[in-house]
Amino acid sequence: MKTKYPVYFISGIDTDIGKTFVTGLMIKYLKSKNINVITQKPVETGNSGKISEDIKQHRKIAGMPLSEFDKNGTTCSYLFKFPASPHLSAKLENIEIDKDIIQNASCKLSENFDTLLIEGAGGLYVPLNNNLLTINYIKENNYPLILVTSDRLGSINHTLMSLDLCKIKGINLIGLIFNISEKSEKIISEDSKVIFKEYLNENFPKAVFAEVPFMKSVSNYMDFETVFL
């Protein structure tokens, strides 16, 4: 199996929406199809270690050891201690995030792997620095986008705004991943799915809608084949 694109960007409607978990499941799925795949977390905040905690989580979910690219920082160019938006966490350490450093790391990973999954920090309008928003970085690089949402209260508003933003910016949305929360209310969950599917059918007819059960109930496998066709 070959994926349609060599690089995918995974973002969410908000922070703590399940991007890391979904990214881990995706790398596990692609590895099951014998695809040489790696993940990248360009910027991570709230991390005091030398290796990205999200990268470690990707590897754990996929059953992979840490690679040399993880250990030497290629898969995560910027690690900051303070848990805030990347631009602020960087500022507190007297650093400005350089998109060229991130892009060079992505190129190096792409040279060594068949497919690259890039997990962003927070949502689409999160600033990387004072001059660059995440969504503009996605657009500049023409990355196909996989957007993670959920059924928690408030997700309809955040999801539709994010999708409208993708439409305005001309982002190539290829998938909307519906992450079912631990305390899911069935009536809210089912209603949200209807609204999201109707929006996709009207505005992104080629985008895939896929569901992921609450992370604690998933142990081995999630079929993302329709996303990567």
Number of strands: 10
Amino- and carboxy-terminal Cα gap: 9 Å
CATH topology: Rossmann fold
Category by helix and strand content: alpha/beta
* Full CATH superfamily name: P-loop containing nucleotide triphosphate hydrolases
Taking pLDDT < 50 over at least 5 consecutive residues as the criterion, the unreliable ranges are: 217-221
β-strand amount: 15-25%
Radius of gyration: 17 Å
The averaged pLDDT comes out at: 91
Report the top-level CATH class.
Alpha Beta
User: What summary fits the major beta sheet?
Assistant: 6 strands, parallel
> Count of helices?
9
Overall tally of structural domains: 1
Helix percent reads 40-55%
Strand order of the largest sheet: 2-5-1-8-9-10
The best one-word shape is: globular
- Overall CATH architecture: 3-Layer(aba) Sandwich
Q: Would you list the SSEs in sequence order as H and E?
A: EHEEHHEHHEEEHEHEHEH
